[in-house]
Amino acid sequence: MFRRATVVDSHDVGAFPVAAWRTRLLRFALAAAAVGLLAAAAASASSLDTREQALIPSETTGVVVVDLSLSIADEDYDVVRGALRRLIAEDASIGLVVFSDVAYELLPPGTPASALRPMLRLLIPPRLGPPVNPWSQGFRAGTRISSALDLARGMLERDGVEKGSILLVSDLETAPEDVPPLARTVEEIRRSSVELRVFGLGPSDFALQLFAGLLQEDAFAAPTSSAADEPVDSDAGSRTPVVLLVLGCLLFLALALHERFGGRLALPRIEGAR
Known about the structure:
Blueprint: H1 15-46, E1 61-67, H2 76-89, E2 93-99, E3 103-112, H3 117-120, H4 145-158, E4 164-170, H5 179-191, E5 195-200, H6 205-214, E6 220-221, H7 242-261
Parallel strand pairs: 1-2, 1-4, 4-5, 5-6
Antiparallel strand pairs: 2-3
Helix pairs in contact: 1-7, 4-5
């Protein structure tokens, strides 16, 4: 013999279909909003510039080539120090070349970027007084970028660096007679496995056009000026993705509203009912 389950008599059962349709529409609207926000968040994330945040390309040993010629303006010294701080914060593996009309190797490839810290107090405009720049005015009385790049490439070859890169920190102004050797040097670097990047210090239109013709567009790193009292270990290249964060919050809000207003109606179970 079958036993009938206990049921609850309701005189307004006809209102349930209306509520059910209303709930379905609400669930569909919230689900569509969540999918739209998810797509917008994905598009926003894909537009973030994550190609190369570091000055030295990842997984490479870089040689930093710093221009100390007289053409470097006083305000550019802050930018140079900012570039060195970024390298220290990125914990890059580097070598160091300083140059004007001649080039000198100061640090061999593979040196931790933390070794640049003593350089920060020396890179000041000459007229600001002590501490005195250790390189003489004779050293700084001209510019030959080609000799500095040749030295940097030779250092990488000498030390057997398989994945090397060169970062040129300069206003890109070179002597007129250095233009043909510079073009040959850059072409030789481009044909090799060494990646050349440029950190420009307010270059003139002519200098910028010269290097733009020699290098690819993505070879230019965007300078980030840095105040003299900026902490060395600060991350100069970080940017908060505000749009992505807002879209993520709205997505979680849509999911929460879906669960709150679009869920199934839960009725308490009656004891003894089957």
